[in-house]
Amino acid sequence: MTSIITVVFIIEAIIKILVCGFVLHKNSYLRDPWNVLDFIIVTFSVISWILDSLSSVSIRFVRGFRALRALRPLRLVSKD
């Protein structure tokens, strides 16, 4: 289930980056604080997946990245 949610976040981030641009345009992806939070969550999720796949990496290091996934519900808070 967690993997499905992560994939949805990754796809959403990619689509927004393709539509809005990454950082150079006035209304680009990283100019919105909510998108910055999304990008951080997606980045750490991908890093966590990579580190999970490497058997030689200490599991304690990976737990810190997993804790950052708890930020996902903040994204669901409506923007006023």
How is the topology of this model organized?
Blueprint: H1 2-20, H2 33-53, H3 59-68, H4 72-75
Helix pairs in contact: 1-2, 2-3
Fraction of residues in helices? 55-70%
Counting DSSP H or I runs of 4 or more residues, the number of helices is: 4
> Main beta sheet, described?
none
Query: Span from first to last CA?
Result: 30 Å
Counting DSSP E segments of at least 2 residues, the number of strands comes to 0
| Averaged pLDDT | 77
Radius of gyration: 14 Å
| Unreliable residue stretches | none
Strand content: under 5%
* Structural class by sheet pairing and helices: mainly alpha
Question: What order do the helices and strands follow?
Answer: HHHH
Q: What is the total number of structural domains?
A: 1
Oligomer: single chain
Q: Which outline best applies?
A: elongated
Describe this structure in words.
The mean pLDDT is 77. The protein is elongated, with a radius of gyration of 14 Å. The relative contact order is 0.14. It has 80 residues and is mainly α. The chain has helices at residues 2-20, 33-53, 59-68, 72-75. The protein has four helices and no strands. The protein has one domain.
Quick synopsis:
The protein is mostly helical and 80 residues long. It has one domain.
Question: What key attributes describe this structure?
Answer:
80 residues
